[in-house]
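My hope is that you will study the record closing this message with an eye to the fold:
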Amino acid sequence: MTPHRATPAAGRTPGRRAIRAVAAFEAAKGVLVLVAAGGLLALLHEDLHAVAAQLIEHLHLNPASRAPKIFVDALANLDDRRLVGLALGAAAYAACRLAEAWGLFHGRAWAEWLAAGSGAIYVPFELANLGRGGGWLDAAALAVNLAVVALMVAALRRRTKAAADDGLQPRG
């Protein structure tokens, strides 16, 4: 077995389709965030106040109401340096999501660890949000994250067991 290849058992496990579904979801998030980063870069050197006003008018929102006013105020405080910083942060996040998706699709253990960790990190925040009276969407997000974490932990356990049965150290 080579150090960076999936174990043969990893390709035939019952959870393989589910892991690939998680990979597809992570890839979609990565692409969506890349598109958002591109949108941020497109706003460079633009009059952001005018852009916000056009968007609010296009959506038929009342510019004097609370939510549109928050949006306009937030854009008023953005300059080109902050836009570039936001776009770079979004690109870094997208790179992590896309790398995770590639690793999961190809059965890499490091990607399973990354998926388990990145799913688990949100659980305390989602629980706190539910404790403050969150709705069904918050409960669904928690359930999905818990399912992803459980799926990845199960895959890692299968990988470790398969390697132990073969007398090898788990790799990937």
Notes: The longest helix spans residues 136-165.
